[in-house]
Amino acid sequence: MRKKTFIIFLLPALFAAILLFDASKKETAQEPLEIIADQVSDQKSAPHKVNPSSFLKKDLAQELLKKAKEKQTQLNKKKPLRSKKALANTTEAEAGHCPQFMEEVSTFEKHLRNGGKPEEFSFDQECPHLPLYGKAYETFKKVCFQNQLQKSPKTFGAMCGQALFMLKATHAELVTKDTPLSEIFDLEPLVYKYFYRLFGPEKRSSLISISERVLELEPSLEEFKVLSLISTFEAMVSKRPDLEKRHLEKMEKYFEELLLSKEGKEREGIYELKLLTLMHSKNHSLHEIETVLSTMESEVPNSSTALYYRANLKNQSNKREEALAFLKKAIEISPNERRYQFTYEQLLKADKAKPAQNAFVFQLSFKGLPFDSL
Known about the structure:
By secondary structure, the chain is mainly alpha-helical. The protein contains 15 helices and 4 strands. It has a two-stranded antiparallel ribbon with strand order 1-2. Helix 3 packs antiparallel against helix 6 and helix 6 crosses helix 7 (187-199). The radius of gyration is 22 Å and the shape is globular. The relative contact order is 0.17.
C-alpha cells in the first residue's frame, strides 16, 4: 500500500538562488508547495557571487534567458518570431499593457546592475493599464524602492531581482495572453510565461504545454527537459485530468536522455525524480523501484541519496533497524544534509509496531534552474 507523502517543491531561486543543472555551476534552494505525502523539497542552486558595486545579483533566470536567446538566433533564420496572426493579436493587445513603462523597467534594471542606486531613477507611471500588472507591479514598487532594504544589498538584490523578473513575466503574459502557443516562435516570452504560470496567479495546468512548446522550438535546451519532467510530476501528484499517456511517454524519453548526458550530482537528481515518479504513479511496483535504485547505486557510487531511499523502502517494510543502518551511512557521507538527521531522529521516536509516517523528506537537486517558491 502506498503511503502518503507531503511534497514540498523548493524549486531553486529565480533570482537569489539555488537548484542544480548548472548553467553557472552554483547551487540553490527553495520554497514549498504542498502536494501529497511525506515531504518532498526541491533544492535550489547556491547563490551567485555578487558584485559589491551592483545592487542586483546575476541570477539564474537571466542565465537561462540568455541561453534561450543565443539559441533563438539560429532559430530566427528559419522562422519568424511570431506568426502574422500572432503579430496582429499583439498589436490589438497593446491597448492592454504598458510597453513604454516596461522599457523603463529594463533601463532601471541595467542601472542597478551597473551600480546605480534606486533613488537615482524616476519612472513615468502614467500608463492607464498598470493595474493589469496587479501584484507584480505593487511588489516591484514596494520592494525595489524600499529604503530599508537598500541598506542590505544582499537582501535587496534577491527581493528586487525577483520582483523585476515577475514584472517582466507578467508583461509577457499580457502581451501573449490571446496568442496560441503554436503561434509563438520567440523563446523569451515562452520562458517568462512558464515562470509566470509557475509562480503567478495563473493555474499550473499549462506548464507542460509551455515546456513542450519550448522544446519543440529548441530541443537541445536541457533545462526545459528538467522543467518538463517536474511539471509532469507535479501534474501527476496533483492528479490533473489533462495528464495524458503521451506526457508520460515523453517523460520517460527525457529521463533516458538526461541520464545519458549528466554525471555526478546532476545524474543523482534525475534519479531521485525518477524514483519519486515511480512512487507516485498509479501502477508502480516495488520491483521497478528496486531496479532503478540499483542502477542508481551502480552509476552514482557512494550516493547518500540512494542510501536514503534504501532506508525509505526498509521503513515501508517496517524493518526499522535496517532503515536506521542505511540512514547512518547516508549521514556519514553527507553530514550536512539536514533531512537525513531529521529522518533518523523521527525513526528513533516512531512506534516500532508500524512504519514511521511523515519521516522522509524527498529532495530534488538540479543545477542552474531558476526557481523560487511554488
